């Protein structure tokens, strides 16, 4: 049977969240064909068997299209919530007094349970606490061992189990709860390629997750807390990839600061050669509408113009009425942006300076050679993925064909800008690798007879990070 040829006409990748609206094989295949490159499993929702079933569908689609597909398991993290109320909800008026405490009794107009002792230990008079995604703002007036008293600064209706945010306060919390540890182990068992860690505050927060993952998946850090932004460089360095999670970040950070944080994070990740995803509310109106707002289209375009590796859909594909249309729209926006001459000018202007290493020198040279000879593709051969990520960091005009004998590496590379990952058998020597590179580039329709490709690799093979060889090869037809 002839292998299905699904070509992506863009370099930016699309991450689509799976959920009730996209649980069947047919639904997942439809959003893959519409343009999704990586699938996100949100462990804040659904049972383990739900995620396992979706994984089976994804891997079945992977076999059908014979192209590596990445799966991200997104951990819930420590969700801080108020308890329940006697009547289900109360209305808090600005200027009123209100108390949050450890007493588990249902709340009323005067108080509510908050079963998180660590919050009271970190609060100080004058600090603000946000409830229900920032819709209600309280200010601390007095601290006690078992709770705190507040003045209501911005009131509203507060109902059972609404979320709590404490901006500007470094909470003594691990980003991994007991639920997360169970979910992480399960995600690794079913073959997740990325583990996304929620509510990271400091570099030390990554240590436990890194130990538990033990190299079986990439570690992706979600930037959702102002404290994480203060540690941006260290967290980027310690992560394998990053997500700009603008929803929770926007609760604790002033709205006018979020676009600046997004640009800083994208720039930092591009400089470090780490994949970066821009996420949350990108096409939010398409949850219930077949078309986005013009502002949403511009938001997606901005992330693509900035050179983000990936853009993400959440509720739009997980629970929306138009999941396929949302992916198709995001795909069209990205394709349109990348056809604009200003897009390439912007990438060239913001390109990083290479580090003084042989690997960086070869990767920079590969891009320059490919541009000079109008190469059809840059082909990288990699074990760990580092050679291919270096090529991606250069943001070349030619597509990047990432060859690897490690299927886990191939799946992780599906998140990287411009990379067409390919799982292939190992090679014995460099000449065999060049022949294989020519054959795959031709068969994947990245190159035609007479085209030239640029090949990079590390010799000896199997040495992570040892990119030290560059070769120009012709597609002659003998290799095919």
Question: How would you sum up this structure, described in words?
Answer:
The chain has 480 residues and is an alpha/beta fold. It has three domains: 13-77 and 175-340, Phosphoenolpyruvate-binding domains (TIM Barrel); 89-165, PK beta-barrel domain-like (M1 Pyruvate Kinase, Domain 3, Beta Barrel); 358-474, 3-Layer(aba) Sandwich (Pyruvate Kinase, Chain: A, domain 1), CATH 3.40.1380.20. 36% of the residues lie in helices and 22% in strands. It is built from 17 helices and 21 strands. It has helices at 25-34, 48-65, 117-122, 178-189, 205-213, 226-230, 232-238, 246-252, 258-272, 294-305, 315-318, 323-338, 341-349, 358-373, 386-393, 407-412, 430-443, and strands at residues 13-18, 38-42, 70-74, 89-92, 97-101, 111-113, 128-131, 136-144, 147-154, 156-159, 164-165, 194-197, 218-223, 241-245, 276-279, 310-313, 377-381, 400-404, 419-423, 452-458, 467-474. It has an eight-stranded parallel β-barrel with strand order 1-2-3-12-13-14-15-16, surrounded by seven helices. A hairpin with an 8-residue loop joins strand 20 and strand 21. Helix 7 (232-238) crosses helix 9 (258-272) and helix 10 (294-305) packs across helix 12. It is elongated. The model has no long low-confidence stretch (mean pLDDT 94).
| Percentage beta strand | 15-25%
Radius of gyration: 24 Å
Helix content: 25-40%
Count of DSSP-assigned helices: 17
Q: Could you name the ranges where pLDDT drops below 50 across 5 or more consecutive residues? A: none
Kindly identify the CATH topology of the largest domain.
Answer: TIM Barrel
Most strands sheet: 8 strands, parallel, barrel
CATH superfamily of the largest domain, called what?
Phosphoenolpyruvate-binding domains
Mean pLDDT: 94
What is the name of the CATH architecture of the largest domain?
Alpha-Beta Barrel
- How many distinct folded domains? 3
Distance between the termini: 18 Å
Q: What is the number of strand segments?
A: 21
Classified by CATH, the class of the largest domain is Alpha Beta
């Amino acid at each position: 049977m002839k292998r299905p040829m699904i070509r992506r006409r863009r370099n930016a990748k699309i991450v689509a969240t799976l959920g009730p609206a996209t649980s069947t094989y047919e639904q997942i295949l439809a959003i893959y064909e519409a343009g999704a490159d990586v699938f996100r499993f949100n462990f804040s929702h659904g049972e383990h068997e739900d995620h396992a079933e979706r994984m089976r569908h994804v891997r079945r689609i992977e076999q059908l299209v014979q192209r590596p597909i990445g799966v991200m398991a997104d951990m819930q993290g420590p969700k801080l919530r108020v308890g329940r109320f006697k009547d289900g909800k109360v209305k808090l008026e600005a200027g009123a007094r209100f108390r949050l405490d450890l007493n588990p009794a249902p709340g009323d107009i005067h108080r509510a349970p908050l079963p998180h002792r660590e919050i009271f230990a970190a609060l100080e008079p004058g600090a603000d606490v946000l409830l229900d995604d920032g819709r209600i703002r309280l200010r601390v007036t007095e601290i006690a061992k078992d709770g705190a008293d507040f003045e209501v600064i911005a009131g509203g209706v507060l109902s059972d189990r609404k979320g709590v945010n404490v901006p500007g306060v470094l909470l003594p919390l691990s980003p991994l709860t007991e639920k997360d540890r169970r979910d992480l182990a399960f995600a690794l068992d079913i073959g997740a390629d990325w583990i996304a860690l929620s509510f990271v505050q400091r570099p030390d927060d990554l240590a436990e997750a890194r130990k538990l993952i033990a190299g079986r998946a990439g570690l992706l850090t979600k930037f959702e807390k102002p404290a994480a932004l203060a540690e941006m460089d260290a967290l980027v360095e310690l992560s394998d990839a990053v997500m700009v999670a603008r929803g929770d970040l926007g609760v604790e950070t002033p709205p006018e600061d979020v676009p600046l944080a997004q640009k800083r994070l994208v720039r930092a990740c591009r400089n470090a050669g780490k994949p970066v995803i821009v996420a949350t509310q990108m096409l939010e109106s398409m949850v219930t509408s077949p078309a986005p707002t013009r502002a949403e289209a511009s938001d997606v375009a901005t992330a693509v113009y900035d050179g983000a590796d990936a853009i993400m859909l959440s509720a739009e594909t997980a629970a929306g009425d138009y999941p396929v249309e949302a992916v198709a729209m995001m795909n069209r926006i990205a394709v349109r942006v990348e056809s604009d001459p200003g897009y390439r000018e912007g990438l060239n202007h913001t390109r990083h300076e290479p580090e003084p290493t042989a690997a960086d020198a070869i990767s920079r040279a590969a891009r320059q050679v490919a541009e000079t000879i109008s190469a059809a593709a840059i082909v990288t051969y990699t074990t760990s993925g580092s050679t291919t990520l270096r090529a991606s960091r250069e943001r070349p005009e030619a597509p990047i064909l990432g060859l690897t004998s490690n299927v886990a590496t191939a799946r992780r590379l599906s998140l990287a800008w411009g990379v067409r990952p390919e799982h292939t058998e190992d090679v014995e020597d460099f000449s065999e690798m060049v022949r294989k590179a020519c054959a795959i580039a031709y068969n994947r329709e990245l190159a035609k007879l007479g085209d030239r490709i640029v090949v990079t690799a590390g010799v000896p093979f199997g040495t992570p990070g040892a990119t030290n060889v560059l070769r120009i090869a012709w597609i002659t037809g003998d290799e095919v």
